[in-house]
Design goal:
20% of the residues lie in helices and 35% in strands. With 397 residues, the protein is of the alpha+beta class. Strands 1, 4, 5, 6, 7, 8, 11, 12, 13 and 14 form a ten-stranded mixed sheet that branches.
């Protein structure tokens, strides 16, 4: 029987209170990293990671390396990537062993949530699992989607029939359906969930933990249903959910494909995605990006070590670019950030605010984002997200 020690949630800043939209530089992996790092705020060891989504960026390869690097976890950890919705996440929770990080992430509506399991905390146990076939939505290997959805059929022969087969008590929360449907199926005042896919179950767990409520939590998708019983105990909840605002105006030059050098991608990966600088043993100086040095004897020194960089800093200088660049919404802002306490400055793109609203001296944090898509490969790096309290950000509202 698993216990939940902490829950982390993340919502993009764009969209409305009812429907968040991922930014141009966000995808399932970047949102999963945000939610996962929020859940890991409480500390504790992680021995296994499970990522559940229907929108994984790489299907022919693995997203594990970027996920572990962004989370700052050991690259040798086991990562289980599961293609699924709300029931798949509940299944992962009900079968998890301690020290497992489980993340659900979605693109429409956009959001991600994560939990860390432990030997004690919020008690969760398996209550029901019903596997029935009602394939109202299918996707071929070519990516073609066929939707046979009939709302009445899906409700009566899908959700209602599966709930009847499960023989559950009245749920306190239902994930995977709209809020009005959840109100009809639940006890009074079920939590309103910002997503309806893989992350919805974990958003529901976060709400129940905050409210101190117990009872059945049900996740449904088509005719599949999984349920857990949320019992006593408590879990820390850490939310990264900024107030929503409209997507800024801009033009998107997406007709030109940016080529990739996989050799250069591989060389830069660790330092860029783990946010690390190079340091030679005989020096306190940090090099970012890491690079070789020529010693006083003329020999090339290559034996630097990678050390983590701070993820907070201050804007040293800024500019806004209006010239269209393939793959980026124009205009966009760039800043040189002076990282806290290490004497390192980094050139990064600004994220999470309208272009031209960041000023010199603004504080913020460095966050993993998708900086480009090159030859179909998502390329990740870091961007500067200003503190919402900064005057420049307030001026963008």
């Amino acid at each position: 029987m698993p216990y939940v020690a902490s829950v982390g949630t993340y919502l993009p800043c764009w969209g409305t209170s009812l429907h968040r939209v991922a930014g141009d530089d966000e995808d399932v992996v970047t949102m999963a990293v945000e939610a996962g790092r929020a859940a890991l705020t409480a500390g504790g060891a992680v021995e296994r990671v499970v990522l559940v989504s229907r929108d994984l960026p790489l299907l022919e390869s693995s997203n594990a390396a970027v996920l572990l690097a962004g989370l700052g976890l050991d690259p040798e950890l086991e990562v289980d990537e599961r293609l699924g919705g709300a029931p798949a996440t509940v299944d992962a929770v009900s079968s998890a062993r301690p020290r497992t990080l489980i993340i659900g992430a979605d693109l429409a509506p956009a959001g991600a949530a994560a939990i860390v399991t432990a030997e004690n905390g919020l008690q969760v146990r398996t209550a029901a699992r019903v596997a029935r076939s009602l394939p109202v939505r299918t996707r071929k290997a070519t990516g073609d989607v066929h939707d046979y959805g009939d709302p009445r059929l899906l409700h009566e022969r899908g959700l209602i029939a599966s709930l009847a087969a499960a023989w559950l008590d009245t749920p306190v929360a239902v994930a995977g359906v709209d809020h009005q449907r959840a109100i009809e199926l639940c006890l009074a005042d079920p939590p309103a969930l910002p997503t309806s896919g893989a992350s919805a179950s974990l958003f529901a767990l976060a709400a129940l933990a905050e409210q101190g409520r117990t009872g059945p939590l049900v996740a449904a998708e088509q005719a599949l249903l999984s349920g857990v019983s949320v019992g006593g105990g408590g879990a820390q909840v850490h939310r990264r959910e900024p107030d929503p605002r409209p997507v800024p105006d801009g033009t998107f030059a997406g007709d030109v494909e940016i080529p990739i050098s996989l050799a250069a991608y591989e060389r830069a990966f660790e330092a860029k995605v783990r946010w690390e600088a190079g340091q030679f043993g005989d020096s306190e100086e940090l090099d970012f990006p890491p690079r070789y040095r020529v010693g006083s004897d003329g020999a090339l020194a290559t034996d630097y070590e990678l050390v983590p960089l701070p993820r907070t800093g201050t804007v040293y200088t800024e500019t806004t670019v209006h010239i269209p660049v393939p793959g980026l919404r124009t205009p966009y802002s760039l800043v040189i950030v002076e990282l806290d306490g290490v004497g390192v400055r980094a050139l990064v793109k600004v994220t999470g605010v309208a272009p031209g609203t960041v000023d010199i001296g603004d504080r913020g944090r460095l966050v993993l984002r998708r900086v480009a898509v090159r030859s179909g490969v998502p390329d990740y790096g870091y961007a500067f997200e200003p503190d919402p309290a900064q005057s420049g950000v307030r001026g963008a509202a």
